[in-house]
Design a protein that fits this description.
Elements: H1 15-23, H2 29-32, E1 45-49, E2 53-59, E3 68-73, E4 77-84, E5 103-110, E6 121-125, E7 128-134
Antiparallel strand pairs: 1-2, 2-7, 3-4, 4-5, 6-7
Length: about 150
């Protein structure tokens, strides 16, 4: 799964394209049909690498930390999943626009070999999940000077 975004390249499978279509009432199934229990919520995650760690940040407004799972799979695959609950619908409510996503979300990231997967830490504050994966120190190759004879 790629997290690199390029604004000048057309990608027909881009999440951004689908989101643009969903904002239009003609293409927004939520505007004309009941919520879909199996739909995936739109969860954006940033991944940055610092000299010390790989840091993932996910905006999860309205999601409690008990509704989020952070797991390691297959040794070096970081899995972030959970569910954003939908708002209760009252019988007399009339929806004009539905743009906030709800439902299950799941993202996976294959970590590089320098990740210390045994030391992953996750925190959640103000609706932002931060997952920190420390990196192993890069060992500098030993250099041994060889005396030149002659």
């Amino acid at each position: 799964m790629s997290i690199v975004r390029s604004n000048n390249t057309f990608d027909p499978f881009s999440v951004d394209l689908w989101n643009a279509l969903q904002r239009c009432p003609v293409f927004n199934p939520s505007a004309i049909a009941p919520f879909n229990e199996t739909s995936f919520a739109d969860t954006r995650i940033d991944w940055k690498e610092t000299p010390e760690a790989h840091v993932f940040k996910a905006d999860l407004p309205g999601v409690r930390k008990e509704e989020v799972k952070v797991e390691m799979e297959e040794g070096n695959v970081l899995k972030i999943s959970g569910e954003r609950s939908r708002e209760k619908e009252e019988k007399n409510d009339r929806w004009h626009c539905v743009e906030r996503s709800s439902g299950k979300f799941l993202r996976r990231f294959r970590l590089p070999e320098n990740a210390k997967v045994e030391q992953v830490k996750a925190t959640m504050e103000n609706g932002v999940l931060t997952v920190t994966v420390p990196k192993e120190e890069v060992k500098k190759p030993q250099v041994k000077a060889i005396e030149i004879s002659g």
